[in-house]
């Protein structure tokens, strides 16, 4: 029947392109084809304060907290809007530690950046105190099929079902010299997924079984040597389809849609079923949070370390096709339109949205590309999206546009206790836009006060300026495609 339906669809394709069919609704066929051509997310992961995503075109984007270089842009500047990570192609999975990022390519090679992997670089003329090293290839990992990141040792699952643990170490005589140690996990074969909880590696087999192996020697405070590994211990015999862990808590997804919980530090003999959880098809963890995707496309969350907390549905998430977790308080989901959504109790790891504090899920912004007078421009500082409008630091596109930026100070303001405020002036073509950084901000065009609603927020360690307002008042053309992220400024060839 499916083959017959495909043949019929193929025969009628010219008709479907000519009419507004019910499948496409009000969207034209040409627009649908264009939409389908955009990259879609294939893997998303979150650290304690940053996010990273792999896309169907093999590219990787990252965003958020960046003090360790975990965004991968070569800086330690926080990035509120995602940036594409240069040097990565054909990526099929991403993963994240607290302050580190990892990418797995289709050849089975693994790349790392961020904490431990991207050291500070001194003496850079543009970024004297904010330059970080770039990506490194983990040479000891080959033919990798999947990654699991943990503070107790990260695990690479190989295509043949075996596994390797790796961890960065530092030379005791040179704390800046980092090396990565690798060793195979003895006794692991035919594994589907592996997670690390506490000192234990939990191995989900392709047959639905779950086994356990101690990988850390707590007596000597180091990972076990290969000769020290003991026999793998069975935990669950069969019927498990998914596994997730955070610190010492382990969650198992049963094939019947229920969830089991187990803690490696307790004397609990076997995982126990969590009451009230049914019809679950996917599980992920955050910091003391369990995220669950149900069969009906809704997402549920359980803050399990609170004894009074009960699982609740995350409002605003429907039609979800994939679920992703983090090391922090943020969850990620992919909807049927191929968009990445974020939610959590804190800032959603720099998703680039001004709605992060209202409790509702937000769409993670696409990376922005900048063209000024027909030339591609890039800059280190972060851009931002505030109340649906685009903001940039002064060290961004203004110089490329030929705009002169000057910082001054206002006269004492009696409405604000005679306080003096910074005044930023942007001059171009004989016109000047000035913004007094009071609350609310005051906008002047050629010295005359306007009624413009504006602000100069301090974000990512920089004052941010309303780009659309400034360019419009100075007569500079600007367009921003919010779907593709393309920003075009000034004259076009």
Automatic annotation (TrEMBL):
Pfam families: Cu_amine_oxidN1, RCC1. Keywords: Signal. InterPro entries: Cu_amine_oxidase-like_N, Ran_GTPase-activating, RCC1/BLIP-II, Reg_chr_condens. Residues 371-488 form the Copper amine oxidase-like N-terminal domain. Transmembrane segments: none annotated. Residues 1-29 form the signal peptide. This is Chromosome condensation regulator RCC1. It comes from Paenibacillus lautus (Bacillus lautus). The lineage of its organism: Bacteria, Bacillati, Bacillota, Bacilli, Bacillales.
